[in-house]
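Hi everyone,

Forwarding the result from last night's run.
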Amino acid sequence: MAAGWNLEGRTAFVTGGSRGLGFAIAQALLERGAKVAIAARDEAAVKAAAGRLTAGSDAEGVLPVVADVTDADSVNSALAEVHAWQGSLDILVNNAGPQLAPTTLDKVDEENIASAFDTKLIGFIRVSQAALPFLSRTGSGNIVNVVGATAHALIPNTGPTAIVNAGVVALTSYLASEAAPSNIRVNAISPGMTKTEGWLTKTEAMAKQQGKSAEEVRAGMAKGLGIRLDRWAETAEIGAAAAFLASDDASYVTGQVLRVDGGLSKPVA
């Protein structure tokens, strides 16, 4: 087990776990001793991801689950399956959500933003509602929502994404208040520019168009956005932050948003 926060004996459920940040978070939880169920709509993709997570280790530590967060019946079935798998549930990570194409608000397609709300914000609510009856009341029960730096920093052409993310910030605070009497903590992580598969592909394409290397493109974006650490995050750094909030080391933390963005957002107070 990797050094860090000990999650031995804990069971986690991560939505959107077949790739990107969801996969990285699942990997971080698994490395720290948790049993991890990962969910995605694509059965082949989620099974392949489970195989990558358990390569060279105990395959019984990961459960691939097919679930659609826009469908309440699918979500309820998935949570029942996860609870039955280990007989317990300690950690829920709400991560599944679409990546909207860059656009200004005056040109955003109404159907696209409605779909984003349904998948991410309302999807987080659906999954949380289904998980709450199963989450441990002994102190290990907690929810970690994945937000995004657009909720805190003005980034050009990301208004639609920002609005959805801002809703998740509000959800985190309200749900933390409502879940506290059940001894369940609710927090969020808010990643900035991160080297996910999607962003690596995008920056490779941008590099070809601009006659630069992908690393040069990312460095230019880091400079343009004013990221204090002057670099993009590795996915493992985001996973580690989620693992911290899910651990007993964060036992007195609830209703908070941890900005894991290298200093992209710059709150004064």
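The helical segments are 20-31, 43-53, 72-86, 110-131, 159-179, 197-210, 214-225, 235-246.

Cheers,
N.
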